[in-house]
Amino acid sequence: MQIDIEVPEGLNPKLTALGWLVGRWEGTGNGTDHNGEPFTFEQRIDFSHNGGDYLLGSSQTFLLGEDGKPTAPLDMETAFWRPAADATVEVVTANSNGWTQVLVGKIQVTRIDLQSDAVVRASAAGISHSAEQRLYGKVEGDLMYAIDRATTEHELRPHMWARLARR
């Protein structure tokens, strides 16, 4: 079995386990909102580095109409990914919908499993986000992910999932 590991030029050696994420990923996905209503979205995720011991992640999503064209911004997220030598990782996110969270998890080559450790919501947050788990993986050269979300009104359930291609 051959494992496809990429180490971008200039990457801090502490980030080697996350090197495969670096770059721009784009595509479409599906989801269910906090009321259980389905939606489709377009997304762009950029993972970059500056030589520090963290990756910077930036995500933008847009709702898609029935014609497949963007109709409105869905959300934006900024994240700092910090791996440790024991293959654990901590991710600190800030979301445009009014919350920030710390996710912790495990890196398994080209698979990353994360669960929220702490969530803080602003008083203006429109959704009572309370917990999350995420799965990221590299499949056939694409970035695939799934996010399950809980709110104060419901337990963890599927929220967003997508397959994004490197651009």
TrEMBL record:
Residues 15-166 form the THAP4-like heme-binding domain. Binds 1 heme b group per subunit, that coordinates a highly solvent-exposed Fe(III) atom. A motif (GXWXGXG) lies at residues 23-29. Pfam families: THAP4_heme-bd. Belongs to the nitrobindin family. One of its GO terms (molecular function) is metal ion binding. It comes from Tessaracoccus rhinocerotis. InterPro entries: Calycin, Nb(III)_bact/plant, Nitrobindin, THAP4-like_heme-bd. Heme-binding protein able to scavenge peroxynitrite and to protect free L-tyrosine against peroxynitrite-mediated nitration, by acting as a peroxynitrite isomerase that converts peroxynitrite to nitrate. Therefore, this protein likely plays a role in peroxynitrite sensing and in the detoxification of reactive nitrogen and oxygen species (RNS and ROS, respectively). Is able to bind nitric oxide (NO) in vitro, but may act as a sensor of peroxynitrite levels in vivo. It catalyses: peroxynitrite = nitrate. Its EC number is 5.99.-.-. Its cofactor is heme b. PANTHER family: PEROXYNITRITE ISOMERASE THAP4, THAP4 PROTEIN. Heme b binds at H159. Pathway: Nitrogen metabolism. Keywords: Heme, Iron, Isomerase, Metal-binding. This is Peroxynitrite isomerase. Forms a 10-stranded antiparallel beta-barrel structure able to accommodate a hydrophobic ligand in its interior. In fact, this fold hosts the heme group, which is located in a wide surface cleft.
